Amino acid sequence: MTRLIVAIDTPDMDRAAELARATDGHVDAIKLGLEFCYARGFDAVAELARDRQLFLDLKLHDIPNTVAGGLRSLAPLAPALVTIHAAGGRAMIGRAREALEQSCVGRERPRLIAVTVLTSLDGHALHEIGVEGTPEEQVLRLGALALDAGADGLVCSPAELPALRRTFGAEPVLVVPGIRPEGADHGDQARVMTPRAAADAGADWIVVGRPITGSADPGDAARRIRAELTA
Ligand SMILES: O=C(O)c1cc(=O)[nH]c(=O)n1[C@@H]1O[C@H](COP(=O)(O)O)[C@@H](O)[C@H]1O
After folding, report:
1. Which fold has domain 3-230?
2. What is the pLDDT at residue 91?
3. For this structure, is 148 an active site residue?
4. CA of 157 to the centre of ligand 1 (A)
5. How far is CA 147 from CA 97, 99, 155, 183, in A?
6. Does 83 contact ligand 1 (Cβ within 6 A)?
7. Tens-place pLDDT, residues 52-70
8. DSSP E strands: which ranges in the chain?
9. Is 206 a pocket residue for ligand 1 (Cβ < 6 Å)?
10. 230 confidence band (pLDDT: 50, 70, 90)
11. Which of 3, 88, 229, 230 has the fewest Cβ atoms within 10 Å of its own Cβ atom?
12. What does this protein do (predicted)?
């Protein structure tokens, strides 16, 4: 069963609280990331995450010691999922996993999720940063490395789901943004699919921001996406 995460990307506490309340009962978790955390800080994150599952999406990417320290500092927030960049490499991912295990003895450990190739990048944009091959090949390469180094799962676009499931099976937690209901504006997302298609292709979680938060009725938008997932 594919679960739904709403990405609450706003610097405003009242707006974030309103979006969280409006989507309560229609989503399985809230995602807070750079925009909210940098503006409001981690007390505000804790407040919004009270009684809700949290996906803390800070996409850590630094030397292993710094990423491990960052994750130890974030552990008290008890997110269900946290993100690092797979491109940080084997040692960084391994130390990240170790830091989470050491910080969460006796309680549930956040799942360590490695971002592969951002869903805003297409083949041309990848070549511009020096990556040869297709987005799918790069996602498979980084996915293999991240899972082997200790990540519990990956962030990928819906387009790579079939290849990831074929290669790595059912176990890795696959978290999938780049989701657009039929007819919705793609915005800055390059590799997109509908909620239903992503669910059929094997997503464990889909991440949806603007199609919900930009709607006149965010609760109803989330409810409709949920219905599409369970149809
Ligand atoms: O890690 C993420 O969640 C993420 C990775 C990625 O490759 N692409 C991506 O869009 N995201 C996040 O997913 C959300 C997508 O938002 P919308 O494009 O508004 O649906 C944003 O909060 C992004 O930060």
Report:
1. TIM Barrel (3.20.20)
2. 98
3. no
4. 10
5. 11, 16, 12, 34
6. yes
7. 999 999 999 999 999 999 9
8. 3-7, 29-33, 54-60, 81-85, 111-115, 153-155, 173-176, 205-208
9. no
10. confident
11. 230
12. Catalyzes the decarboxylation of orotidine 5'-monophosphate (OMP) to uridine 5'-monophosphate (UMP).
